[in-house]
Amino acid sequence: MDKTLFDKIWEAHVVKSLQDGPDVLYVDRHLIHEVTSPQAFSALREKGMKVFRPQRTFATCDHNTPTQDQDKPISDPASAQAVDTLARNTMENGITFFPLGDPGNGIVHVIGPEQGIVLCGQTVVCGDSHTATHGAFGNIAFGIGTSEVEMVFATQCLMQNKPRQARITVDGRLAPDVTPKDVILYIISKLGTGGCTGCFVEYAGEVFRNMSMEGRMTVCNMSIEMGAKGGLVAPDDTTFEYMKGRRFAPSEEEFARMVPQWRKLKTDDDAVFDVEHTFDAADIRPMATYGTNPGMGMAVDGVIPSEAVGCDSASFDKALAYMDFRSGERLVGKKIDYVFLGSCTNGRIEDFRAFASAVKGRRKAPEVTAWLVPGSKQVEAMIEAEGIGDVLREAGFELRQPGCSACLAMNADKIPQGKYCVSTSNRNFEGRQGYGARTILAGPLVAAEAAVNGYIDIWKK
Asked: What is the value of pTM for the model shown?
């Protein structure tokens, strides 16, 4: 029987199948941060246990961390305690930790790939919903709860029921102004936030084959915004070139031995999926959201619709009221207050390259507050090495230091009540970026245009 890519990885990691129950799944990589790990470490300590295989766990601080003055003590007591606790717990258990200021520090889903921690054909978990990012390398990657974090600490395994599978195929060529973020926002707008509930999604077709690794990470990152448990892309030469030579990647000789095995990680021709969706790249335009879930998206130059897929009328009306938008209105021309470039969705070097290309030779609108936050210290260094920092500063922008920043209201970077923020992050829920904040999700080019104009518009090359 022909198998999917997901089937092959899953079956290779099943330690034991429980009769009429879940599978015991071995975990190759466990990523942790300061928010969801303390309780798991405490529970382990109470049982007199330590982490079973610490060499397979990697830690960073990102959610609670400030994005300014990282060389100084963290001013918020709760955040400082969370970061200090992570440092102590990792030291006690012999876990590799990237503290603030370390060259390897950054957002957990940015540093995993760029440090070569995440390879192909692995199982990857983290106490964070956007762990799906790592599926871009042909992995089964998904978020877990705190009790499951403890289970992985203790056993390097998890009990999981095998999920249903979906395949989303996008063929054709994207327009030059369409980014990977636009691709996934378009898909979610067509399927709704429950369109792939409980499934693992394989992304297939010409568009994803031609996409960079950073683009694939952006797409897989937002898989869960349509209800999926995770997303993955079959590895290829693009994948292998990205991984080669990174800090924790295999040696050159070992890497060469592994590539032939990684090439086998693909779906067989006659494999059957539970759900199939197909889209045409020519239909995808630069996107933005107008409501309070990622499924409420539209072409930037379109008009706000009167309904959204999978959203009942009461919820739809409530979302528009929160945003102070109306059906039939255009987003183009809407004034905005903040722009956020960053997060585990769009905080990589390609995102900064795109943003800089759009603002070069122009000036930031004086009424706009822009937070440009690299996803890692490595991205921060590349921004300066490539001259991107100079371009941004000449255009009136300031760079902040790595962290989750304004993606979520867990640090000092909060959008004030009632203010509009064009954000390259992944969620636009009520209060996600701060109490009463109004979030408009978009890609880096749309965000750049808004930052320069002070209002929403499409990028004009």
From this structure: 0.97
